[in-house]
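Sample pair:
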Amino acid sequence: MPSKSKIVTEGDPLARVMAPPPNETEEQREARVAAEAEAKKISDAIDEELQRQAKAEKRGPKPVKILLLGQSESGKSTTLKNFQLMNTPKAFRAERASWRAVVHLNVVRSIRVIVEAMSETQAYHASTYSSPNTPVRTHAPDLFRSPSGSSLSRDARFQHPPLTAEHLKLKLRLSPLVQVEETLIRKLTPAGSGEMEATQLLCMSSGGSHAERVRALDRELAVNSQFAWKGVFHKMIGRTSQDGEADAGDPDDPSLVLHACAEDMITLWDDPVIKALLRAQGIRLEDMPGFFLDCIERVTHPKYVPTDDDILRARLKTLGVSEHRFTIKEVFAGGISRDLRIYDVGGHRSLVRLRAAWAPFFDDMNAILFLAPLSGFDQVLAEDESVNRLEDSVLLWKSICSNPLLGKTNLILFLNKIDIFKAKLRAGIQFGQYIISYGNRPNDYDNTSAYMRRKFGQIHREYSPQARTFYCHFTSVTDTKSTSEVLVNIQESIIHANLKSISLTG
């Protein structure tokens, strides 16, 4: 009968994994022991550093913590970039080369939307005998709705001048962008790096049914916030100069293909027939995050280096929770240095909705900065096309205000993307047609924005577990100057409130 210790060892999967390989030579054993010793040394160093940081935090000033919340594409990542630009400008600008690749990915995605619209037009005119139930795109990221908000009828969506042979040749000449997008996505999200919602230019390749292309266009590249994608991009363009310029001698650099296609991309975007096609299908690329088609020549130049504004406008969807640390000076306590920690909760709807899951981990926040894009009043969620985007922001705001775990946390509301919101109102899109409770009131910015401020303020007042001040700002976080002024005031106010709470001031 086997001994008890032998039974335990044989039944322990960890012991089997850690056991030395059979028939191990003396040389292999020495190499294994050395590797294990090195791994233990690194592990011990990490533990010591964590302990050192924990002791330093206990001795030093209490950090100021801010949590960014909002639905996908609400502007959280752009707000974080503004914090970075404001507090660590050198580090922010040192990442230009990484953002250069993201800008290029944004350009390719915009062209993909146009090419897909052209493919749908071709399919429509070639489907005389096709089934009337052939699926058509009714949304995709919320851009493919009619100006009236209802899905465009199939016939109405193709009432525009027909595509010519030159348009089809142009589309064919842009086919190398398939490889550009595939290369950028592959380099950005290697196997095991995180969750991804990415598609290639299926419409420009031979594979993929129409229904698959419809579903594909509605998805977007997403990187896990814990994955160091910037480091990957630096390696991908490792043969760049110090300021981020491409090496013209590298034939595999995606930017060289983009530069070669630049003239055709400009021709495509400026073509009046293409403009009419996009209008007929309800596509407003200029409202799309990461829109750079108005400066293709500049951003595809071999020596292109992104500006601060380019980095703020660049779109890269993030998933998961990330922490960002800054050191700031307190003007209220003799210039003492203090840690500022910004927590970004990825905008995936399933994550921000599961408040019971994340709220307990953020009950010690000094403030929650909530972003609600007003421009989404005529759009629906990509995750659920039955839900209006602005309505979703209101419901999420209500859930945060009413959460007892966050009852003592200051809530700061950014009614964001007012630049796009104003443009839509000027274009004649009726706010009251989507926000029914608004009724027939004036369709101008002053009245509509004041209405939404009152609506969010009423929820804040009625659902907060205890009385707290309502902070609300109308913002366009891609506007660096105005946003930095707001963030400086918020940052100082939060620090001042934090000092008062621990009886250091007032």
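The first strand starts at residue 64 and ends at 69.
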